[in-house]
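Milestone M4 deliverable, item 7.
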Amino acid sequence: MSLKLSVIIPCFNEEKRFQKGFDHYYSYLKKQKFQWELILVNDGSTDKTLDLMKKVKHGKLQIKVISYGKNKGKGFAITKGVQNSKGQYILFSDLDHSVSIETIENFFDYFKKGFSIVIASRRVNGAQIAVHQNGLREFLGRGFTALVRLIIDPHIKDATCGFKAFETNIANKIFSKISIYDWAFDAEIIFIAQKMKSKLAQAPVVWTDVRGSKVSLKKDILRSLFGLIKIRLNDLQGKYS
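Output delivered:
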């Protein structure tokens, strides 16, 4: 039986949340009849995250651990995961599982309908937010998505939800061109997919805020604005051709 699903979880200094997050994914995956792999990527953590990864991997062939010494950003971690994936479909998600892993079952339905990319959205019909972020983070998230719609793609309702799945051949093409690894990483994925004329679905999800985000509002919001500008400059220079 061929490997159906690769799940990539990037982690940076997650020792306090790691076990609960891992249990969420593993408890679901181990019950599935299809073949799967869980890829844990240590993005240069300075705490005990890597030790915890090695501990849960012990004796489990379906779990891969990728690690490197210097923190390089979520986008870089996911790119490394994609490069080491063998599944028919690739999903990346966050350790805090703001979107439940069970949501992948709905995503499979979209793939059956001919979509090659499915991104979770909190802002399309049918979506639910069970627990909201604090007001400032929610406002800034909406503001960033508004910029994505203005600069990248006017049809995108939610650019930053961290639960996205791809057919593997499409993922390999997109991630071979990625150059931005911070908060604008998601926008670059969407832009490259658009350039490739990939069929992309925005799927409604149930989303729950979990405290402990590593996003720095002062630093990452400004950096993300520059990231959106860089995407357009990259395109003008033909880097996505």
